[in-house]
Design brief:
Shape: elongated
CATH architecture of the largest domain: 4-Layer Sandwich
Largest sheet: 7 strands, mixed
CATH class of the largest domain: Alpha Beta
Bound molecules: MU-OXO-diiron
Strand content: 15-25%
Radius of gyration: 24 Å
Number of strands: 23
Number of domains: 2
Number of helices: 12
Structural class: alpha/beta
CATH topology of the largest domain: Metallo-beta-lactamase, Chain A
Strand order of the largest sheet: 1-2-7-8-9-10-11
Helix content: 25-40%
CATH superfamily of the largest domain: Ribonuclease Z/Hydroxyacylglutathione hydrolase-like
Length: about 400
């Protein structure tokens, strides 16, 4: 438990989750995470921005008792997902005076998910303001970052943006402000990769809107706050842009060494052509790492044996994950080794259909690859080289 002071009469009162290992039961968290909540004491009214994951509700309650054992007029809900809204029912129970301030979509979701009574809400519209006396909150609707109801809150006088998930990073740290930018950007990219990437087109628009605001501090609801906002805003501009990097990812599985021989040959061929390549042996790969790399890789080549009548299930999962994230990769390839036959190419192709990419001709090897197969792999490396040159990334 700890209350951290952001500025005069502005406190971080949420919880650091040092031990959390998985997020969304999907990606590993090497550095834990945090659920930040912010208390703002105006000259007339007090507001709490977001709450915490239900598991950490007691930390929030205790922190509030320490710093502000008085009335809380408003509870601003930027996002209905439970890691930020989970503490709302308890706050409302302890503070019968508190009104939840949010947009109409978020209200509907909070009613559905947490059964919060309708009469406890004040519904605001895009760019509406709320006065706390000498401090003014402005609400900016930013749908699909990463749910349909998401919004951010801007504290005008102090020039602080409270964007909830937007710009957040999976990182448990005692320091309130970013001190190690590369570490925090790792956690921020992990967060972006897993949940924001499919919405990069709309996030581009929201970033433009935020350019009109004078922002001195970004205080997200995961990870440290940024007292140099350009650090994370520039990173986001890069991630959501249409630009890709000179990088080929090879997610693969090999059962008896044939697919591995193809993967190794392609890897050497790409290195010879000055193309960065990264292998993900899907038997043990960290899919969070894979998601981070797919944020800006130009090309993905899947490698799989035929299993039963299709691709290896781990490759099916990777292909589905790539499609679900709507990665901005420009080219997709597949190399497969088989014993008798099956529908690997069609299967993987349909799973990554949401990715708008050129599909290279597949390379299929019957059993252990031979000279002809290796020639095809060299030709594939030549095509990748050509495409990366055409993109101006090599
Ligand atoms: Fe951090 Fe979308 O919740």
């Amino acid at each position: 438990m700890a209350v951290r002071k952001l500025k005069d009469r502005i406190f971080e009162v949420g919880a650091i989750d040092w031990d959390r290992e998985l997020f969304d039961e999907l990606v590993h968290l090497p550095d834990g995470t945090s659920y930040n909540a912010y208390l703002i004491q105006g000259s007339e009214k007090t507001a709490l921005i977001d709450t915490v994951d239900p598991d950490k509700e007691n930390v929030l309650i205790q922190n509030l008792k320490t710093v502000h054992p008085k009335r809380i007029d408003y509870l601003i809900s930027n996002h209905a997902e439970q890691d930020h809204s989970g503490g709302i029912p308890k706050i409302l129970e302890l503070h019968p005076e508190t009104m939840v301030v949010t947009n109409a979509k978020c209200k509907a979701m909070l009613v559905d998910h947490l059964h919060i009574p309708e009469e406890r809400f004040i519904v605001i519209k895009d760019r509406e303001t709320l006065s706390l006396g000498d401090k003014t909150l402005e609400f900016i609707l930013t749908p699909w970052v990463h749910w349909p109801e998401t919004m951010v809150t801007y504290l005008q006088e102090d020039k602080i943006l409270f964007p909830c998930d937007f710009f957040g990073a999976h990182r448990a740290a005692s320091n309130l402000f970013v001190r190690n930018e590369s570490k925090v950007l790792y956690g921020a990219k992990l967060y972006y990769a897993e949940i924001m990437m499919p919405f990069r087109a709309i996030i581009q628009k929201h970033l433009k809107v935020l350019e009109d605001y004078d922002i001195e501090i970004i205080a997200p609801s995961h990870g440290p706050a940024y007292d140099r906002p350009s650090c994370i805003m520039d990173a986001y501009r890069d991630w959501v842009s249409d630009e890709v990097k000179n990088k080929v990812l090879i997610p693969f599985v090999s059962m008896h060494g044939s697919t591995r021989a193809m993967v190794d040959h392609l890897t050497s061929a790409l290195i010879d052509r000055d193309i960065k390549v990264k292998l993900f042996n899907l038997v043990r790969a960290d899919m969070g790492e894979y998601a981070m790399d797919i944020v800006d890789a130009a090309t993905v080549v899947f490698g799989t044996p035929f299993v039963l009548v299709g691709a290896h299930p781990a490759v099916v999962y990777a292909a589905y994950f790539t499609g679900a994230l709507r990665a901005k990769v420009k080219h997709v390839g597949i190399m497969a080794s088989y014993g008798w036959g099956g529908k690997v190419v069609e299967q993987v192709g349909s799973l990554i259909q949401p990715v708008k990419a050129e599909h290279f001709d597949p390379i299929l090897s019957r059993g252990l690859p031979g000279e002809e197969d290796f020639k095809k792999i060299d030709a594939l490396a030549d095509i990748i080289l050509e495409r990366h040159q055409a993109l101006g990334i090599l």
